[in-house]
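notes to self, project folder thing:

trying the whole complex as one job this time. last attempt i did each chain seperately and stitching them together was a nightmare. three parts in total, labels are on each line so i dont mix them up again. if this works i'll redo the older ones the same way
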Amino acid sequence: MNVYTPILVLGILAFAFAVFSVAAATFTGPKRYNRAKYDAYECGIEPTPQPVGGGRFPVKYYLTAMLFIVFDIEIVFLYPWAVAFDRLAIFGLIEMLVFIITVLVVYAYVWRRRGLEWD
Amino acid sequence: MNILAAVGIEVPFTLPIVDYNAIAPLLILLGAGVVSVLVEAMLPRGSRRFIQLFIVFGALVAALAWIFTITGVRVITAEGAIAIDGPALVMQGAILVLAILGALLMAERSIDPSGDAFAARASALPGSEDEKQFTARGYLQTEVWPLFLFAVSGMVLFVSANDLLLMFVALEVMSLPLYLLAGMARRRRLLSQEAALKYFLLGAFSSAFFIYGVALVYGYAASTQLPAIASVLTAKPGQTSLALIGMALILVGLLFKVAAVPFHQWTPDVYQGAPTAVTGFMAATVKIAAFGALMRVLYVAFGGMRWDWVPMMWIIAILTMLVGSIIAISQSDIKRMLAYSSIAQAGFILVGVIAASPAGLAGALFYLIAYGFTTIGAFAVISMVRDESGEATNLSKWAGLGRKSPFVGSVFALFMLALAGIPLTSGFIGKFSVFAAAIASGDTWLVIVAVVASIIAAFFYVRVIVVMFFTEPGPQTASVEVPSVFTTIALAAGATVTLVLGILPQPVLELVSNADLFIR
Amino acid sequence: MNPANYVILSAILFSLGAIGVLVRRNAIIVFMSVELMLNAANLAFVAFARMNGNLDGQVAAFFVMVVAAAEVVVGLAIIVTIFRSRRSASIDEPNLLKY
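result (full assembly):
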């Protein structure tokens, strides 16, 4: 079997998932049209027209952006593990579990301190 | 199926071996830090302080106790990233003991009538209605405790990091919580926030130099592990320019943490602006951690380039001693004065580092321990001397304090004499052992400069004593608040160790000389 | 392409960052310059990893990225606090602490 077959299968799976998601959303999602639907990404501030000097963003965005950056970057450590997880065996699994639990503790802190609530 | 194996690449592979016994103190502290965050997340406000104190002191004592059980361990573990050796264990122990004293100062809440040393809510605007409400309700910012635990873990890791990359991570784990702690004072909050900003921007700047230096050294040696760098240096001694630039940049980062001239600018501002309890903790422990890492880098990795770094360090040591001592004379704020004093003391310790001998290492370790206890005691006294607006740090408010409160005055005088290096105090033994080691290594001129700087430094230490005892107390003289058992223990420990190390230094001298050298 | 060029590029980026820290007056921009210096180190790590033929440098870049993110969080928290109490992010304005 060609070594590229798994990549092909993965590609097909990803494509199928994307098609499924979009289709499922069309059929099952509630349809309530309002102004927000016409915004880019259906949320956030208007990207155009840009105010003079770039304008100021509400400070709320800063908290959300910061939390996103922190949790996003942590994922980088999963990549080296993913490359060698079978050889690292149980040792790697335990180490990664400890890592994920640590991240979860921080998540719990953010959640309980209402860092995830917009208002 | 492994991906690399699937495409036909065979990588030799061994599981990393970690000596959990040797790094248990670190794991205890980090684990306690995580639990501490969880406590902040899950428990109601009222019960947090008590439980946090329980976790903090429990973890510190447990880590310290564990270190006593592994005193004989000399091992490089975690794939060469961590070295647990004699000097590392001595410094870890010293950091933990001083951290206990620092935690005692931070836990104090009897001195300030409205709460502990930290803002009721660090996020509330200074002077705002919110702030008044939070203070009136008696809120405490208990997040200082997880931050404190992470800072201590960073230090404990910093002195045993055997890999420059891990050293960088430890540097940040140590520094980031300290930046925040520096900005959380309950009183004079604008000053405190400004200190945090300055500390942060300059600290981040210096750590960027550090990591770029690591990158260059990695380019030279193809490894970031200190012993590997040393062996590449001996293998190809000719083309060292990349290693030389890298080493210089790494030293910038480390000398910043040590507060050596010309990388000292942050010290007075941060020492003055930070809450006094944090200043005391930081002054004592960061110095030990930073010198530990500095010596490990210089001796283990760049021992072969000794003739390149010794002239550089000579100049830095001389500048540090003289600039610290001379500028301290003109200070009118006691915390700023102690900041410049800490710069001068860093210069004296550098004399021992430059000696690059077993005696120099032992001398520097002894000096660091002695300095740590004296400093934390001195800041404990400063946190007690207050007037109606909070801590009275201006020297004019200290006039006649020794007559008004003779006991506290004499204890502070003892600390000043120890910092000046007067016999029968720990400072004298520290200076003596460092200078003796430097002379034995042939750095006589450096020692002569150091002695001159000590004499200049003695001037401003003695001036504080004169101001306290030989002036009549007036209406502006601050009063000494009666602290709770927390500060009392810290103060008593600081004073006792300062005195005992001056009179009976033998046990600790033996401890530091039996610590061997850094392992390679 | 010769990987040494990337090292030279990283040195240029590092110098730009250092100059930015020294000459700019807005705390946010100073901080961005520091981040530029850290990323210059990342570039140097990756280039040297290619030249040395081992992966240590690439792993180092991961760690530097994570540390940089942590630094961003702490730094922005401090800068935003200062901005809220003073309505300005200039690093010349906080001048309560001096001789």
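what i see at first glance: Chain B is about 70% helix and 0% strand.
need to look closer tmrw
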